[in-house]
Amino acid sequence: MLGEYLISGRRAAEIAASVEQGVASGELAPGQVLPPMRELATLLGVNPNTVAAAYRTLRERGVIETAGRRGSRVRPRPASTARGSLRVEAPAGVRDLGAGNPDPALLPGLGEALAAAAAEHARSPRLYGETAVVPGLAAAARSGLDADGIPGGPVAVASGALDAIERVLMAHLKPGDAVAVEDPGWGALLDLVPALGMRVVPVALDEEGPLPGEVERALRAGAAALVVTGRAQNPTGAAVGERRAGELRSVLRDHPGLLLIEDDHGHAIVDVPVRPLAGVTERWAFVRSVSKAYGPDLRLAVVTGDELTVDRVTGRQRLGPGWVSSLLQCAVAHLWESGAVDVAAVARSYGERRNALVGALAERGVQAYGRTGMNVWVPVGDETGTVARMLHAGWAVAPGARFRMASRQGVRVTVSPLSLGDVEPLADALAAAAPPAAPVSYG
Fold it and tell me: What burial class does residue 267 get, using C-beta atoms within 10 Å of its C-beta: 0-12 exposed, 13-18 middle, 19+ buried?
């Protein structure tokens, strides 16, 4: 069953460590079936309860998963193997369309904002014991949230969207709980959930976002939390429209105890309105990051939600980093208040490139998706071969394995580095490199 690898140990911690070592070394491959608990207990000469405790620890750490009578097996993507490591390095002469970065030409200059933050610090240095959120940022954030119809609630600040989502999940869930996430979806989130010892439940989506029937299935299967990307979904570009939002609210009303998290990382780079679901469930959080529109290095996201959720997030934050730098907060507040980003122009720039690529691929018989944001998702029949052939043709694209669980194979193309003149040769290369996939939606 395990080939040449021998699990060892007398205590639960030792057995768990032995399995983790085998996974880390590659001797236990993803999908590898582990011995039944009683069988392994007999081999090691220990009580079956000891092996059960070891397997439970491994599940909580996201190393293995258990599927009833099919037994326990190494996770297809163990938490110790980050999906980001699946990226393709672009050698000299190859255009990198896989990194997922925004176009630097569309990011605002930070000099004026940082100078304003430094001047504010000189007037009134932030010291220990002060409020974690700078009042100017809280006011600017709340104004924007109110304008977008996000329910009222306190505002917290985290070090980016992923930090915020992790803090919200940890505020309510425990190891072993299930989290419903979009499939395909954000690779870092797909890594984070099992790293917290929680289980990922994939939810299929189309261009309008998560499918209501899929959400209902996941929640009836026991998912304690749901993460939804309202617009510029990574990697597909999906955006939740008014009709789909209504359908999802209808599903969520039957699950008032669910923890709902909405990720609005597309704020200020798309011109479609956000359709919030917040407030339908008792526990909710809405996360708005600045990375895509203002610069990834700012590392800041604002979080609002119900009072208990935000209170738990900020309480735990006080015991760790304490707060996000007030210099960054003041700089972001200045960027928002000064209108440093022309949202319509940024959205139009990304949209022209996305639409041109999707259209050029359609002319070549290749189905692709990219309704909003900076990415185009291309379903393919063989993503490994497609990535290799594209690299040979001079283009590095992101393998779909970084973003998917149960969904069909594909590749993600980030349009940020493209000019409109690049579209036709890129479409030619993709059409030649990508074996056709079955004509289905993202799920």
Answer: buried
